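User: Fold this one for me? It's Auxin efflux carrier component.
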Amino acid sequence: MISWEDIYKVVAAMVPLYVALGLGYGSVRWWRIITPEQCEAINRLVSCITLPLFTFEFTLHTDPFAMNYRVIAADAIARLIIILLLAAWPKCSRKGSYCWSITSFSLSTLTNSLVVGVPLANAMYGHWAQDLVVQLSVVQAIVWLTLLLFVFELRKAGCGLFDAGAGQVASIESPPAKDVDGAGAASGVVDHEAAAVINVRPSFWRLMKVVWLKLALNPNSYASIVGITWAFVANRWHFEMPSIMEGSILIMSKAGTGMAMFSMGLFMALQEKILACGPELTAFGMVLKFIAGPAAMAISSIAMGLRGDILHLAIIQAALPQSITSFIFAREYGLHADVLSTAVIFGMLVSLPILVAYFVVLGFFR
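Assistant: Here's what I get for Auxin efflux carrier component.
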């Protein structure tokens, strides 16, 4: 059974995050140290420098040869189930949209494994559980956050090329305005049949070219891949990274999570309300995070033959609070950042009692 000391360890891991968030909030709202224009630059710093180095640092220290691939497969199946449901949502319901499908994927699958999951898993089940949560976090960084980044770039490139194509056709197809008598626009009477805009969708290959170019220039897309490649090589031939390289990475990577929370505090300060998305969307996010995600993980884990404590841990780690990185990406690409910030802030506040409740209830099913 989890003890008060174990709960304190989890709380001690979470409180510094709120300190960083409060400093960011106060820097804009109370002390006026940072202007709204500077907030975007800080988020860019986090997105392109500190978070990639943070991801690279924890990925390169994993041991790929010691991973539990059955649990990883169950985790992948659970996320694929959610992806299929969210892809069908816009086609089956008028309320659905692909933009909301992207956000819903983040809410239901991307977790704060390292900050909250590691101490909680160790407190509940021991060191083996902590290692498993780290493994799932590495896979999340390599596969699922990269997939999220790809979808964001695809959406951004598609909108940009679509607008550019429509503008070009409009300029070609629209003849000069002329009056009713055909004497030109001098009389001021305009022939409106001459504002016609034809929508032109960009070709698939042109779209892919733009997306892959953007991903190639984004350090988030290959930080985890380079890290896991180093991990394979280092563990295969048993050598360590030189201390001068390790120190160069650590000096900025240690600021990754703290700066991400600081950036979220800046974002909160620019909103009218702390819970920026309102109570309905907050409840929607909590249902996806603490019910839909664990339910999909339970189905896939049982299908993969997981039983006992390892099944319980798989379900609990799927109910961990929202990934901070998902908010940084949402803000960077301008898609429902208010919903993701609320999910991170409110989710971390309510996650501890919910996760303990999961632990107690699952303990009855051995």
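One thing worth pointing out: The domain at 10-149+219-362 is CATH 1.20.1530.20 (Na+/H+ antiporter like fold).
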